[in-house]
């Protein structure tokens, strides 16, 4: 009842403010004329002014991306409060959330519910978003379900990355950026370069390249206090555009990305007193960066992608074809020592993951706007991901629990312990899993301009999806201290599949209050396909394949206003939303029972009965003078579980915070998390970017820019562990620079994290590994004050 009352109050506020301001929309392109520029987006699969699209959109232009140093999805989250990003040991653990909802699932068969699209081609997995934002035209962030037009697993939202097309005249640029940390070791040097122009009368091209070298800020006391992880990233893009006639445009795009380096090590922020006494060299605390590894942590990934698109105007209609092919590979070596560094040797955990995706989209739409603007199309999605893990763990203390690691992350246990009487146990693991997903979406959407003031948009999509999965696992356990007779356990091979189909749709009504103002209301639905949970323990393969994870659905309601006023000097967006997710695919940590000798701990995927997000977003832009530009965004979001019963957090007692004893043995097994927050979903957050420029001569100017983000405290785990809460913090960056030589040369100096605020991206309770309440954390890249310089030149 209280939540509904809150929603009613926010609805009234949004409606009243919308009438007072006559609507708004969020577009970020500054010009030096004292007015905001029109921004064109393709959220409806056709070019539109962002102010005319009846949904909450953040459109970030090339100028805004460069001015604010947004070079990755992680950087994007700094300027868009509705977006959260986290990663742990390597790219395969990356999570993107929109309005508090995202997929923190590590298995290869479960896909993200925040879709990332690059030049109209959807990426199959979140780790494929680990690329540098080099030479982009813009980025569009669409909030809420986007299933009608984009289909593939976008129940929470969508991020569309659009690269720059080749130029009609010669142009080139180069830029270098260097930053170093103030307190802790670590630095990053990034170089971008590109050239574009006509090759013939009908053919033009663009080539862009980048190199990035980073030195980590963790200190490894087992390896001569070396810092890590160190990483080298390089890649580029080559794009051709052929226009043989005015009616035909063909584009061919090739992208590549390589990253060689190390995984992020496990670092503990706290430990029980016995462990603290045994490891005085580790300064335990919320800002600890000291760790122990065996120096074997490696993470190499590669990505290649081709996109062929064509727009062919045939009289009254335009035919569009977008063909995409992507190949992604990840190779990992991980190690996880005991805090003492001598009782558990997790070595040679090697993982190879390969993903190959083919997509084909066909669309037809009117060539000119009219009383009815429509789009009809189909998207074929074909993806294969396979994974092989080979692990060798030495000196596992007999009769105790020990983390072995997993295909994707050292935090995913797949095998544990020895029930035999021995001094220690050596374990070898050989595991292969694979998932094949095929999806066909047929869609249609149209906007009827009923009058000059009223507009009605309706769309529908039919989704047909099937997934096949395969799993095989072999464990060899050899005991020491007794007769060393290896014990071999084989699970599988096993295979199976699921098929499903569904309809999703959208319905919007828009009323133009004035020439630059409108009010809108939208209802939309989303769908994420079911999956087989391949991260389950091998002993449970039969049950897992017989009972796959059910499909996730979303129902979204949104009302908002969009407007510009004061002669295009001020722009304001307001969106009020409520989204209900049914059968949300959530990952939970399942510790072993205290009575389970030789038990198994693991992560597993469960369907949460229901969760919801509701709140208000306010986006503002202003250019009150030619010299001053301001962009800000505010989010109030209640993201909570309505019906969810995950496992108890470590140390939880029966009756504590909803803890339940389901098997009658007196220990806490599950908990009632209804009404509890989603992981990493702040209730309050906002961002701000302000830039002031002053002319210094006829062809030069100086500028100062302050930008950043603040969020309140968040719970880092769905198990609601009270020891894994990130306190509120704000990260603010200050940049000062000079632009001269007719805007060709730019020099700047900057400070990141101006006020030296510490933050983490993830926390995990590993007490089942290291005896008691031992909390590991993964530190944000911006968790220390940094100083940097930048220089760029364009022709």
Oligomeric composition of the shown chains: single chain
Helix content: under 10%
Mean pLDDT: 84
**Overall shape:** globular
Largest sheet: 22 strands, antiparallel, barrel
Percent in strands: over 45%
By DSSP (H or I, 4+ residues per run), the number of helices equals: 5
- Low-pLDDT segments: 1-32, 341-345, 398-422, 592-601
Radius of gyration from the alpha-carbon trace, in angstroms: 27 Å
Structural class: mainly beta
What's the total number of strands?
A: 43
N→C terminal distance: 61 Å
How is this fold's topology laid out?
Layout: H1 2-21, E1 26-28, E2 40-41, E3 48-49, E4 57-61, H2 62-67, H3 73-79, E5 83-86, E6 95-98, E7 101-102, E8 114-118, E9 121-122, E10 136-143, E11 157-163, E12 171-181, E13 187-198, E14 203-215, E15 218-220, E16 226-228, E17 231-245, E18 248-261, E19 267-270, H4 273-278, E20 290-291, E21 298-314, E22 317-334, E23 345-366, E24 372-397, E25 424-449, E26 454-480, E27 487-514, E28 517-528, H5 541-546, E29 552-565, E30 570-590, E31 602-622, E32 628-643, E33 659-660, E34 670-671, E35 684-697, E36 700-711, E37 714-715, E38 725-726, E39 729-740, E40 745-752, E41 760-765, E42 775-779, E43 786-794
């Amino acid at each position: 009842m209280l939540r509904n009352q809150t929603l009613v109050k926010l609805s009234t506020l949004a409606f009243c403010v919308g009438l007072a301001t006559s609507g708004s929309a969020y577009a970020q392109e500054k010009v030096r004329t004292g007015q905001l520029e029109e921004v064109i987006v393709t959220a409806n699969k056709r070019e539109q002014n962002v102010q005319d699209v009846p949904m909450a959109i953040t459109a970030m232009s090339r100028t805004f991306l460069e001015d604010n140093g947004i070079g990755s999805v992680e950087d994007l989250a700094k300027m868009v409060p509705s977006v959260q990003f986290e990663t742990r040991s390597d790219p395969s653990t990356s999570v993107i959330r929109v309005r508090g909802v995202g997929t923190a699932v590590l298995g290869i068969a479960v896909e993200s519910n925040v879709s990332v699209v690059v030049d109209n081609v959807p990426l199959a997995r979140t780790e494929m978003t680990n690329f540098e934002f080099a030479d982009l035209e813009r980025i569009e962030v669409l909030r809420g379900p986007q299933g009608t037009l984009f289909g593939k697993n976008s129940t929470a939202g969508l991020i569309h990355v659009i690269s720059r097309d080749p130029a009609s005249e010669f142009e080139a640029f180069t830029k270098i950026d260097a930053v170093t940390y103030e307190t802790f070791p670590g630095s990053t040097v990034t170089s971008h370069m590109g050239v574009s122009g006509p090759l013939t009368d009908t053919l033009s091209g663009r080539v862009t390249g980048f190199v990035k070298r980073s030195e980590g800020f963790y200190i490894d006391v087992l390896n001569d206090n070396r810092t890590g992880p160190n990483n080298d990233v390089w890649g580029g893009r080559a794009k051709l555009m052929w226009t043989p006639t005015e009616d035909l445009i063909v584009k061919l795009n090739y992208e590549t990305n390589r990253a060689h380096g190390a995984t992020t090590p496990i670092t503990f922020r706290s430990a029980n007193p016995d462990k603290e006494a045994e490891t005085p060299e580790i300064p335990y605390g919320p800002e600890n960066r000291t760790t122990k590894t065996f120096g074997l942590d490696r993470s190499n990934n590669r990505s290649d992608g081709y996109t062929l698109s064509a727009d062919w105007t045939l009289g009254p209609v335009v035919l569009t074809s977008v063909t995409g092919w992507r190949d992604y590979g990840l190779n990992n070596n991980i190690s996880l020592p005991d805090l003492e560094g001598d009782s558990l040797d997790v070595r040679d955990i090697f993982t190879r993951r390969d993903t190959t995706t083919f997509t084909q989209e066909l669309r037809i739409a009117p060539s000119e706007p009219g009383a009815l603007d429509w789009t009809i199309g189909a998207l074929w999605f074909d993806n294969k991901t396979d994974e092989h893990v080979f692990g060798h763990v030495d000196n596992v203390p007999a009769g105790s629990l020990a983390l072995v690691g997993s295909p994707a992350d050292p935090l995913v246990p797949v095998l544990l312990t020895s029930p035999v009487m021995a001094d220690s146990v050596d374990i070898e693991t050989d595991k292969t899993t694979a998932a094949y997903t095929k999806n066909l979406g047929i869609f249609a959407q149209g906007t009827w301009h009923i009058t000059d003031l009223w507009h009605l948009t309706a769309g529908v999509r039919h989704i047909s999806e099937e997934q096949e999965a395969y799993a095989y696992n072999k464990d060899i356990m050899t005991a020491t201290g007794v007769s060393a007779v290896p014990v071999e356990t084989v699970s599988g091979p096993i295979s199976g599949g699921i098929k499903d189909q569904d309809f999703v749709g959208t319905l919007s009504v828009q009323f133009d209050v004035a020439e630059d103002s409108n009010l809108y209301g939208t209802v939309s639905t989303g769908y994420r396909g079911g999956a087989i949970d391949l991260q389950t323990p091998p002993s449970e393969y039969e049950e897992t394949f017989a009972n796959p994870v059910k499909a996730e659905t979303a129902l979204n309601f949104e009302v908002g206003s969009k407007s510009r006023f004061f002669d295009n000097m001020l722009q304001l967006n307001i969106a009020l939303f409520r989204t209900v997710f049914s059968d949300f695919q959530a990952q939970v940590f399942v510790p072993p029972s205290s009575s389970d000798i030789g038990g198994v701990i693991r992560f597993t995927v469960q369907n949460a009965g229901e969760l919801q997000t509701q709140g208000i977003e306010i986006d503002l832009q202003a250019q009150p003078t030619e010299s001053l530009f301001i962009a800000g965004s505010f989010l109030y979001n209640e993201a909570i579980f309505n019906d969810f019963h995950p496992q108890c957090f470590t140390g939880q007692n029966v009756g504590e915070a909803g803890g339940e004893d389901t098997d009658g043995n007196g220990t806490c097994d599950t908990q009632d998390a209804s009404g509890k927050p989603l992981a990493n979903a702040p209730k309050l957050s906002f961002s701000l970017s302000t830039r002031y420029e002053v002319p210094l001569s006829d062809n030069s100017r100086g500028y100062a820019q302050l930008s950043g983000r603040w969020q309140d405290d968040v719970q880092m785990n769905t198990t609601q562990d009270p020891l894994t809460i990130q306190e509120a913090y704000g990260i603010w960056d200050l940049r000062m620079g000079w632009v001269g030589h007719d805007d060709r040369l730019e020099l700047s100096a900057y400070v990141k994290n101006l006020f030296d605020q510490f933050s983490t991206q993830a926390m995990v309770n590993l007490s089942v590994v290291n005896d008691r309440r031992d909390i590991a954390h993964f530190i944000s890249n911006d968790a220390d004050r940094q100083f940097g310089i930048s220089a760029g030149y364009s022709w």
